[in-house]
Design brief:
Layout lengths: L2 E4 L5 H8 L3 E4 L9 H8 L4 E4 L7 H5 L6 E4 L9 H6 L3 E3 L6 H16 L2 H9 L20 E5 L3 H9 L6 E5 L13 E2 L2 H7 L2 E4 L13 H6 L5 E4 L8 H9 L5 E4 L19 E3 L8 H19 L7 E2 L1
Helix pairs in contact: 1-11, 5-7
The protein binds (2R)-2,3-dihydroxypropanoic acid.
């Protein structure tokens, strides 16, 4: 019987689809990633792995798993995977595009509104008993309505975010290497990276993490933004030079930042962002609605079954 390793405790009803025809091993701990040693040990005779974005799929792992045919990554991003090594080992890699697009765009939109309107600071003040009464500029933030919004990475999530701006009469800019089909009918204008930074009141990073986009948002980039602008990141933490962002928010180079992703996750209460005014921080929950996570799991399982049964992967990458 072919063996499938699932590196996190996912929906058991979805896993059951595999149990009839395959031996399935599931890492039962919900919050903690499978330790690397265990991952290497468990997968050395595996034919398929359902991996998380916290699992490193690299040369060491691939050369240790000679039977491996497919790795189905439970994420649209696949920067945890060495695609060249996978190609060398003839291992199919799949991801979970489309099924998480709207959910992740919703979270990005939430971050923008929460940051603009100081929602977390206002909530914290009230909960801690610090609300002393109404006053004209108390917790006065900035409007999103009528502003310029710049999207770095106009893929399907960037476009879903842009569609939500229709009710806000926004001026939409985007930066991609070239014109994006995803931007058709959105009235969005392709601009240079510098123009995106200098013109936007809100800058959203929704790009995949690549060598080209890594650490793109550094002191120089933040320095080009308006001092009233907000930076939102739902891409990957490594798009940002975190020391530079902390400094930019601390010194008022930009007005605020709202982040769902960090370079080294999870971050703890001792991270330099924690406690900074005008920082909205979430624990990587972009695609975390129950329905979407179930859809992502189903897509991973279907990709695995296709490949192990000799068919074509549904959503291959690379
Ligand atoms: C992804 O799919 O890449 C997201 O970051 C997961 O929430």
């Amino acid at each position: 019987m072919k063996k499938i390793v699932i590196t996190r405790n996912i929906n058991p009803d979805i896993v059951d689809k595999l149990r009839k025809d395959f031996e399935v091993s599931v890492w039962e701990e919900d919050q903690k990633p499978m330790p690397r040693e265990k991952f290497l040990e468990e997968t050395k005779d595996a034919h398929a792995v359902l991996s998380m974005l916290s699992d490193k799929v690299d040369e060491e792992f691939l050369s240790n798993a000679p039977e491996l045919k497919v790795v189905a990554n439970l994420a649209v991003g696949f920067d945890n995977i060495d695609l060249d090594a996978a190609r060398r080992h003839e291992v199919v890699i799949t991801n979970t595009p489309d099924v998480l697009t709207e959910t992740t765009a919703e979270l990005a939109f939430t971050l923008m509104l929460v940051s603009a309107r100081k929602v977390l600071a206002a909530n914290k003040e009230l909960m801690e008993g610090g609300w002393s009464g109404w006053s004209p500029y108390h917790m006065a933030g900035t409007d999103v309505f009528g502003k310029t919004v710049g999207i770095f990475g106009m893929g399907s999530i960037g476009a879903a975010f842009a569609r939500r701006l229709a009710g806000f009469r926004s001026n939409i800019l985007y930066h991609n290497r070239s014109e994006s089909g995803a931007a058709d009918d959105l009235g969005a204008k392709l601009v240079s990276f510098d123009e995106l930074l200098s013109e936007s009141d809100f800058v959203l990073c929704a790009a995949p993490l690549t060598e080209e986009t890594k650490h793109k948002f550094d002191a120089e980039a933040f320095g080009k933004m308006k001092d009233t602008a907000h930076f939102i990141n739902i891409g990957r933490g490594a798009h940002v030079v975190e020391d530079d962002l902390a400094e930019a928010v601390r010194t008022g180079v930009i007005a605020g930042a709202a982040l769902d992703v960090f370079e080294n996750e999870p971050i703890g209460a001792d991270h330099q962002f924690v406690g900074l005014d005008n920082m909205t921080l979430l624990p990587h929950i972009g695609s975390a609605s129950v329905a979407t996570r179930n859809n992502m799991m189903n897509l991973c399982v279907n990709n695995i079954m296709e490949v192990l049964n000799g068919g074509r992967p549904i959503t291959p990458v690379g």
